[in-house]
């Protein structure tokens, strides 16, 4: 296995880590419900993308609940 020839100095380590900072995501507000949303994405709360309804949020929520119930039942059986 290849091994580094010499120890990385504190300075070198820190210089590299100076690029590791995270930036906060840019958020915009939904024009329908005013919730914060990722730009160019349908709203997670109301399912609208601009003026158009893109996602049926209610059926999605039902599916999520059903999935959760199934999971709980599975853990009870064991
Ligand atoms: Zn919305």
Describe the model:
This protein is an alpha+beta fold. The protein has a domain at 28-77. The protein is built from 2 helices and 4 strands; from the N terminus they run αββββα. The chain has helices spanning 10-17, 57-77, and strands spanning 28-29, 36-37, 48-49, 52-53. The longest helix has 21 residues, at 57-77. It is flat and about 60 Å long. It binds zinc ion. Zinc ion binds at residues 30, 32-33, 35, 43, 45-46, 48.
Helices and strands, with pairings:
Elements: H1 10-17, E1 28-29, E2 36-37, E3 48-49, E4 52-53, H2 57-77
Antiparallel strand pairs: 1-2, 3-4
The structure holds zinc ion.
The site of zinc ion has 8 residues, from loops.
Q: What ranges have pLDDT less than 50 throughout 5 or more consecutive residues?
A: none
Question: How would you write the strand order of the largest sheet?
Answer: 1-2
Range of helix content: 25-40%
Number of helices: 2
| Category by helix and strand content | alpha+beta
Q: Categorize the overall geometry.
A: flat
Order of helices and strands: HEEEEH
Task: Give the termini distance in whole angstroms.
Answer: 45 Å
Q: What's the β-strand tally?
A: 4
Query: What integer value in Å does the Rg equal?
Result: 23 Å
Mean pLDDT: 91
Say which molecules are bound, naming each kind only once: zinc ion
What percent strand?
Answer: 5-15%
Largest β-sheet summary: 2 strands, antiparallel
